[in-house]
């Protein structure tokens, strides 16, 4: 089982930036597709961004393209989500996800970190 620990959430003003981090066990990024999801109050959890196991391919939800960047630091075993030009729609709990199902593995979630964007 992969333990994921998110951090970096907080309160930010509209138009501001925030960087989320997700600490993972060593070598996690070699075997799992890493993703970020978010869940706003009263809404379903939605996909935000993903990065392939080799870090080459990234995918983003249309709503965040051009503003959010997903990346990994293999030396620090940390997944990041850089969020720029935040809007009120960015208010949500953000979850880190490790998806190993394509390789016969499991899917693991972090506990989430709250991001609140104020106007």
Spans with pLDDT under 50 lasting ≥5 residues? none
Please state roughly what percent of the residues sit in beta strands, choosing from under 5%, 5-15%, 15-25%, 25-35%, 35-45% or over 45%.
over 45%
Mean pLDDT across all residues, rounded?
95
Gap from first CA to last CA: 39 Å
Instruction: Assign a percent range to the helix content.
Output: under 10%
Structural class category: mainly beta
Order of helices and strands: EEEEEEEEEEE
Give the count of helical stretches.
Answer: 0
Shape: globular
Would you spell out the secondary-structure blueprint of this structure?
Elements: E1 5-7, E2 10-13, E3 18-23, E4 33-39, E5 46-51, E6 58-60, E7 68-73, E8 78-83, E9 92-99, E10 107-109, E11 113-118
